[in-house]
Design brief:
The complex is a heterodimer. In chain A, strand 5 (182-184) and strand 6 form a beta hairpin. Chain A has 12 helices and 6 strands. In chain A, strands 1-2 form a two-stranded antiparallel ribbon. Chain A has helices spanning 15-25, 27-44, 46-53, 110-146, 148-163, 166-178, 195-204, 206-221, 224-231, 236-272, 284-292, 300-327, and strands at 65-68, 71-74, 76-78, 87-89, 182-184, 187-189. Chain A is elongated and about 85 Å long. In chain A, helix 4 packs across helix 11. Helices cover 62% and strands 6% of the residues of chain A. Chain A is mainly alpha-helical. In chain B, 30% of the residues lie in helices and 18% in strands. In chain B, helix 8 (314-323) packs antiparallel against helix 10 (372-382), helix 9 packs antiparallel against helix 11 and helix 14 (481-496) runs antiparallel to helix 15. The two termini of chain B are 43 Å apart. Classes of the chains: A mainly alpha, B alpha+beta.
C-alpha cells in the first residue's frame, strides 16, 4: 500500500463565486458598500426616529419650544436687537432626538427631515433604476435580436430621447406634469405622487441602458449557440429569455449602482427646482432648497443634505466600479455619452 | 367732487410753497453724483403704456408725466392728485362726465420736441392701440373706448378725447361719471408720449420723456441708465420735482444676498427685491439707520375657489378663515415689524377701511387668535370633511412656507391637503384660469390707486370673473348680485360724495369678508435697505421710495 496521496481534481469555483471573491478583496468597493448600507439603514429608521424624537417632520412648528439643559428654547428665535427683524431657526443641538441638526424655516427638525428625505431619495432613485433597467433592457433586447425595421424604429426613438440634454428633458417633463399629474388611458398618476419623478427619471435614462444592451445583444445574436438554438426551431422569445438575457446579466448588475447614483442626482436636482418631490414631503433636494434661504444664518440645513447626496453618490459609484471590475472586467460599460 | 378737488389743489399749493425754499437749498448742496440701484432682473418692457409692475412704475416717476400726477410727497400725501402737464386740475362739467384740462406751455420732450395737445390726444389713443393692460378696465369709460377695444389699430377715441390746439385744451368725455378717473389718469399707463411714438410695444427702446430724467441706455440683461433730461425745467415741484443725482444707474442680475453685501460695502445704494429673510436679524441690529420700514396698501390672501368643492360651500370657506393663525404667517414673513395680521379685504389706512374681523377667537375689530374648534365644527357642518384640497403656491421661499403652513392647517381641520409650488412666472395667471381647477392658492394684491374699488370691485365683482381666461382677476370666482349692485352704487355715489361712498365700501368690505371668498392673511410692509451715503429718503404711499428725491453726495 502506498503512502502516496491520491491527487484529487481541484474543484473549480463558479464565475459568480470568483466575482464575489474578487469584489470582497476590493477594499474601496466594500467600504463604499458599507457606507451606502449604513445610509440606507439610517433612512429606513426615519419613522422610528421621528416617533422617538416626538417630532412631525412635515408640519410647521413655528411656536414650538424645546428643552435644552432644563431651559426652554424656542425653535424659532426672534431677533431682539435693534429693530427686532426676522426669526432665526434653532441651530444644531447635537443631541439625537432633540433637533440634532437644528430646525428649518418652518421650525421642523432637520435631522428627522434628513432621514425621511433620504428615504424618498433612495426610493425614487431605486424605483427609477428598476424602471429604466426594465424598459431599457426590453428595448435593447428586442432591437438587437430582431433587427430590421424593429431595430430601426426603436433605435431612432432612443436617438430622439438621447438627443435631449438629460436635465432639460427631465425638467420639461416635470413642469408639464407637476400640476396635473399623468393621465394616459388607464394610467393615472396624481401630481403629488412619488411615482411621477420615478417615471420621469426612469424615462430619460432609458437610452443610456438600452444602447449598450442592444450592442451586446447584436454581438450575441451572431454567436454559435444562438444560431444553434434558431436552427433547432427554438422560438425567439425563448432564446432571448434563456440564452441571451443570462449573458447580459452581469452588465445589468453593474448598471444598478451606477444608474442609482445618477438617478439620485437627478431627483435631487428636480426636487431642488420644486418639480420633484412636493412639499411638505422631504427629499434631500427639497431640504437643500429650504436651506438656501438660510445659508447665511443656518448653513447646515443646506450643507448636510448636500453632503449626504455627495457621499451616497460617491459610495454608489465606487461600489459600481468595483462591481464592474469583479463581474465583467472586459466590459466597457460606462454611463454617459462618451 | 369739484369741491374736493379744489380743496386738494389749494392744500397742495400751500404745501408746495412751504417746500420750495428747502428744496432749492438742498439742491445746491447735494445735487450731482450717481445713485446705484440693484434688482435681480429688469421690470419687463420699457413702454410705460404697457409696463404693469411696481418696479417699472417706481422708476417712471421722475421720467414721465401725465395730465395729472400723484403728489411727490411722503406718506398719505402721496395719494393726492395734483396737476402735472395740465396747468390745473380739470374743470368738471356735464354732470361729471366731461373734464377739461388746460395744457402747460413750454414743456419739451427729452429729444427736444415740444409737448403739445396732439401728443396728449395721440397718447390716449396709443393706450388702446398697444392694447395696454388696463385699456379695457381703467380707460374703458372714455367715449369711443368701446370701438378702440374692438379695433385697436384704427382707434381715434372720437368724441372721447378732444384736443383744441388754439386754446391749448384737452377735453375728456366719459360715458358716465367716474369718481376715480383722475387717479387713473395719474398712472403711468396714461403718461404723455410724443405723438410719433410707434403704436407697438417699444420693448427695450427708450421713449422720449418730459420728466426731470430720461432713459439714456437700457439692456434688459445688464441694466438701465437714467440721466438728466437736458430739456427739463421744473414747472411743479409737487408733480415733477427736479432730482438730486445726475445719474441713476440700475443694474440687473445680482442675487438678493449679493445685493445686500454690495449695499453694505457701499458698492450700491439700494435694492428693489425683498431682503433675504436670513439677513433680516443681522441688518435689523447692525444697520438700523440704513433700513426704512414703510406701510404698503397691499394684501396677501388665499383665494378659495367658490365654484369648486369643497369651497363652493360657505361654511368650508369660513372654517379655513377661522383656522389660520395669522401670527404664524406674520412670523414667516419676518415678524410684526414687517407685517400685520388681517381678516378683511381693505388694507389699514385705505379709503373705506374700518377694522373688522369676524374670523378670530373673539370676533370684533382685530384678529387675536385662531379658533380651531369653530373651524372643525364648520367643516363637520359643511359635510366636506375628508375632501382633497390642493394649494397652489408660488415657487418663492415665503410663498412656499405659507403653502406648507396652510397645508398643515387644512390637514388639522379634516381635509386631505397638499401644496404645489409653481414658478412665479406662471403662478399668477395659472391660478386665474378656471381650466386649471385650482381650489386654493396664495397670492398678493397691491393697489393701483387709493380707492376701495381697486380691491373690492376688481377682485370680487362678477365682471372680473372670466371662465377659462388667464386674466380672471376674480380668482375666487365669487359673484354675488346684491353685493355687485351695491358696489355699483358706491362707485356712483363716489362722484358726488366720496365720504359716503367710503362708508358704503366699508359695509361691502364686511359683507365680502363674511362670505369668505378668500382668506385675508396679512398686510405687508416695505423694507428698504439703502447705503450709508443715501440721504433724504422719502417714501411715497403710491409709488414707494422716490428715488431721485434722495441724494448721494
Amino acid at each position: 500500500m502506498s503512502n502516496q496521496a491520491v491527487a484529487m481534481p481541484r474543484k473549480t469555483r463558479g464565475p459568480w463565486a470568483v466575482a464575489f471573491a474578487k469584489l470582497a478583496r476590493d477594499r474601496a468597493a466594500m467600504a463604499s458598500l458599507a457606507v451606502f448600507l449604513l445610509i440606507v439603514l439610517a433612512c429606513l429608521s426615519a419613522p422610528l426616529y421621528a416617533q422617538w424624537a416626538g417630532t412631525d417632520p412635515f408640519a410647521s412648528t413655528l411656536d414650538a419650544v424645546i428643552q435644552i439643559d432644563g431651559a426652554d428654547v424656542p425653535v424659532m428665535e426672534q431677533s431682539t436687537e435693534g429693530l427686532g427683524l426676522g426669526y432665526t431657526p434653532l441651530g444644531p443641538t447635537w443631541r439625537l432626538g432633540n433637533y440634532f441638526l437644528g430646525a428649518d424655516s418652518q421650525g421642523r427638525d432637520v435631522m428627522a427631515r434628513m432621514l425621511y428625505g433620504g428615504l424618498s431619495s433612495l426610493l425614487i432613485s431605486g424605483a427609477a433604476t428598476i424602471f429604466t433597467l426594465i424598459i431599457g433592457t426590453a428595448a435593447g433586447l428586442i432591437a438587437g435580436y430582431f433587427g430590421g425595421i424593429t431595430d430601426t424604429v426603436l433605435s431612432r426613438l432612443l436617438d430622439v430621447l438621447w438627443a435631449f440634454p438629460i436635465y432639460l428633458l427631465a425638467i420639461s417633463l416635470s413642469i408639464v406634469t407637476i400640476a396635473q399629474g399623468i393621465s394616459i388611458g388607464p394610467i393615472e398618476i396624481e401630481s403629488g405622487s412619488l411615482w411621477l419623478p420615478v417615471i420621469i427619471i426612469g424615462i430619460v435614462y432609458v437610452p443610456y441602458v438600452a444602447r449598450p444592451i442592444r450592442g451586446q445583444v447584436l454581438s450575441l445574436r451572431h454567436s454559435e449557440f444562438v444560431f444553434a438554438a434558431i436552427n433547432l426551431g427554438v422560438p425567439g422569445w425563448r432564446i432571448l429569455w434563456r440564452d441571451i438575457l443570462p449573458n447580459i446579466t452581469t452588465t445589468l448588475i453593474v448598471f444598478v449602482p451606477l444608474m442609482m447614483a445618477l438617478n439620485m442626482l437627478t431627483e435631487s436636482a428636480l426636487s431642488f427646482l420644486s418639480i420633484g418631490v412636493q412639499p411638505p414631503a422631504a427629499s434631500w433636494g427639497t431640504i437643500i432648497q429650504d436651506g438656501q434661504a438660510l445659508l447665511y444664518t443656518r448653513p447646515l440645513v443646506a450643507l448636510v443634505p448636500g453632503l449626504a447626496i455627495a457621499v451616497s453618490v460617491m459610495a454608489l459609484n465606487v461600489f459600481g466600479d468595483g462591481l464592474r471590475d469583479a463581474l465583467d472586467p472586459r466590459s466597457k460599460v460606462r454611463l454617459g455619452r462618451d | 367732487m369739484k369741491k374736493l378737488l379744489f380743496a386738494a389743489s389749494v392744500a397742495a399749493l400751500l404745501a408746495g410753497s412751504w417746500l420750495a425754499p428747502a428744496q432749492a437749498e438742498y439742491l445746491k448742496e447735494h445735487r450731482g453724483g450717481t445713485i446705484r440701484l440693484l434688482a435681480r432682473s429688469a421690470a419687463g418692457t420699457l413702454d410705460p403704456h404697457i409696463n404693469y409692475t411696481d418696479q417699472g412704475w417706481q422708476m417712471y416717476q421722475p421720467i414721465y408725466d401725465g395730465l395729472v400726477a400723484f403728489r411727490k410727497a411722503e406718506g398719505m400725501d402721496g395719494f393726492t392728485i395734483v396737476p402735472d402737464l395740465a396747468e390745473a386740475l380739470p374743470t368738471v362739467t356735464n354732470d361729471g362726465k366731461t373734464f377739461t384740462f388746460k395744457l402747460r406751455k413750454g414743456i419739451k420732450f427729452s429729444n427736444g420736441q415740444d409737448m403739445g395737445v396732439k401728443d396728449v390726444v395721440a397718447s390716449f389713443q396709443r393706450i388702446f392701440k398697444v392694447s395696454g393692460p388696463t385699456s379695457g378696465t381703467f380707460y374703458a369709460g372714455i367715449v369711443g373706448a368701446d370701438k378702440c377695444l374692438a379695433d385697436a389699430k384704427s382707434c381715434t377715441l372720437e368724441g372721447g378725447v378732444v384736443g383744441d390746439e388754439a386754446a391749448g385744451t384737452i377735453t375728456l368725455n366719459l360715458t358716465k361719471p367716474d369718481a376715480e378717473i383722475l387717479y387713473k389718469l395719474a398712472l403711468p399707463h396714461a403718461v404723455v408720449l410724443p405723438a410719433d411714438t410707434p403704436a407697438e410695444d417699444m420693448g427695450s427702446k427708450p421713449i422720449p420723456s418730459t420728466g426731470a430724467y430720461m432713459i439714456s441706455a437700457f439692456d434688459p440683461n445688464k441694466g438701465m441708465t437714467v440721466s438728466r433730461n437736458p430739456n427739463f425745467k421744473q414747472w411743479s415741484e409737487e408733480a415733477q420735482p427736479d432730482g438730486y443725482p445726475d445719474v441713476v444707474q440700475y443694474d440687473f442680475g445680482l442675487s438678493e444676498e449679493a445685493a445686500v453685501t454690495a449695499i453694505q460695502n457701499g458698492e450700491a445704494d439700494w435694492m428693489f427685491d425683498a431682503l433675504p429673510s436670513d439677513r433680516l436679524g443681522e441688518l435689523g441690529s447692525k444697520s438700523m439707520d440704513q433700513l426704512h420700514i414703510s406701510p404698503l396698501s397691499a394684501w396677501w390672501y388665499a383665494p378659495l375657489n367658490n365654484r369648486l368643492a369643497p369651497f363652493d360651500n360657505e361654511k368650508a370657506r369660513q372654517a379655513v378663515a377661522y383656522a389660520i393663525d395669522r401670527n404664524t404667517l406674520v412670523k414667516l414673513f419676518g415678524g410684526k415689524v414687517l407685517a400685520s395680521p388681517v381678516c378683511q379685504v381693505l388694507p389699514p389706512d385705505f379709503p373705506g377701511h374700518e377694522d373688522y374681523c369676524p374670523f378670530t377667537k373673539n370676533p370684533g375689530t382685530k384678529w387675536s387668535a385662531p379658533d380651531l374648534d369653530k373651524a372643525k365644527q364648520l367643516v363637520e357642518e359643511s359635510g366636506t370633511k375628508g375632501q382633497k384640497v390642493t394649494i397652489i403656491a408660488e415657487d418663492t421661499a415665503i410663498s412656499r412656507s405659507i403653502g406648507v403652513y396652510l397645508q398643515s392647517v387644512l390637514t388639522s381641520i379634516g381635509y386631505v391637503a397638499d401644496v404645489k409650488p409653481i414658478s412665479s412666472n406662471i403662478q399668477f395667471t395659472y391660478i386665474q384660469n378656471t381650466n386649471n381647477k385650482v381650489q386654493m392658492s396664495i397670492t398678493q394684491w397691491y393697489k393701483d390707486y387709493p380707492a376701495a374699488s381697486d380691491f373690492l370691485n376688481i377682485l370680487f365683482s362678477c365682471a372680473s370673473f372670466r371662465e377659462g381666461s388667464d386674466a380672471s382677476i376674480n380668482i375666487a370666482g365669487f359673484c354675488d348680485k346684491d353685493i355687485d349692485a351695491k358696489m355699483q352704487k358706491a362707485l356712483d355715489l363716489g362722484v358726488t360724495d366720496q365720504k359716503a361712498a367710503d362708508k358704503m365700501w366699508a359695509e361691502i368690505d364686511r359683507q365680502i369678508t363674511d362670505k369668505a371668498p378668500a382668506v385675508g392673511l396679512f398686510t405687508p410692509k416695505r423694507l428698504d435697505f439703502v447705503s450709508k451715503r443715501v440721504g433724504n429718503f422719502k417714501f411715497n404711499r403710491q409709488f414707494n421710495w422716490m428715488i431721485t428725491q434722495s441724494w448721494v453726495q
